[in-house]
Sequence to fold (251 residues):
Amino acid sequence: MAADYIVETQDLSIDFNGFYAVKGVSLKVARGSIHALIGPNGAGKTTCFNLITKFLRPTGGKILYKGQDITRAKPADVARLGMVRSFQISATFPHLTVLENVRVALQRKLGTSFQFWKNQRSLNVLDAQAMALLEDVGLAEYAGLQAVELSYGRKRALEIATTLALDPEMMLLDEPTSGMGHEDIGRIAALIKKVAAKRTVLMVEHNLSVVSDLSDTITVLARGEVLTEGPYETVSKDPQVIEAYMGTGHA
Fold:
């Protein structure tokens, strides 16, 4: 694998009793880029994402991460290698504060997860790190609130903060703006752009405006196969893409 690519799939496939949800997908994600997977409903986006993040095992093909074959690895194994899917570790604890949620994630990185009984003084260093992460995602002023009190968009920002606590080299985001209003979409899109400055992001996203603003490369899937790939300017004018989206109105 070329050093320029952090993730590569080679003829990746999975069939369910003869039905190919993903078929022969060869994907290359450039290090330091934002790469989007889009396509009409039923295109195989989420299945492909689940294969890469090891929540499904492929029936054919290979997955490489930093040149290492992870085709048969477990989700926890690839997380330790630096590839983290946001919901893997970022499901928030609703009745802990925003600060405490990030602190738990930091404790996990240190191998001392969930030591809630430790005295406050011993956790001061984690508080400082947690507050820095909350500053990064625009949540510092909400540090003392319980997570359950946050708006939906800010909960997603907290999930990103807890993911960042593991200092991943690559983040995988599954529909990060799904269900959000316009203001929250703008906030999360700006946050994704900010965190991508130091790492690689692969995302499945329905909102084409977000995709066009953020993505360096877009892979379009249809019926489980790659339809086309390239920058938004090229992909959006492809006749096959236009036909695939005809009548759907969105990715």
Summary: The longest helix spans residues 182-195. Residues 247-251 have pLDDT under 50 and may be disordered. The beta strands are 5-16, 19-30, 34-38, 60-65, 68-69, 83-85, 170-174, 200-204, 217-222, 225-230.
